[in-house]
TrEMBL record:
Domain of life: Bacteria
Domain VOC per the UniProt entry, residue ranges: 1-106
Name the record gives this protein: VOC domain-containing protein
Pfam families in the record: Glyoxalase_6
InterPro entries per record: Glyas_Bleomycin-R_OHBP_Dase (IPR029068), Glyoxalase_6 (IPR041581), VOC_core (IPR037523)
Annotated source species: Streptomyces lomondensis
């Protein structure tokens, strides 16, 4: 579950960012999944308070092209975030409500 000031807006943002499907678009309980009949999903619910500290759950993207993915996510409304990571090979971003996540480089076997 993801606490949110605007579950529908944040849920739609994450659906676009992940390429997932909306399965419930109620204003106070918005759910997305990889496919309608596939779990797990993310459930966005309304809370009165805003995010004030670092996330307890942190998602990482691992695209084939880190630079292109960062550009795509920034175009969707993400922004760069500094959580004290310093110089790293990954890029830390935040969604429209300030939830941090990282975009890693391509996996090397």
């Amino acid at each position: 579950m993801v606490d949110s000031a605007d579950p529908e807006a944040l849920g739609r943002w994450w659906a676009e960012a992940l390429g997932w499907t909306v399965v419930n678009d109620a204003p106070d309980e918005f759910e997305i999944r990889p496919a309608p009949d596939r779990l797990p999903g993310l459930l966005f619910t309304s809370v009165p308070e805003r995010k004030t500290v670092k996330n307890r759950l942190h998602l990482d993207f691992r695209p084939d092209d880190q630079e292109a993915e960062v550009a795509r996510l920034l175009a969707l409304g993400a922004r760069h975030a500094d959580i004290g990571q310093g110089e790293q090979s990954w890029v830390t971003l935040a969604d429209p409500e300030g939830n941090e996540f990282c975009v890693l480089g391509a996996f090397k076997s």
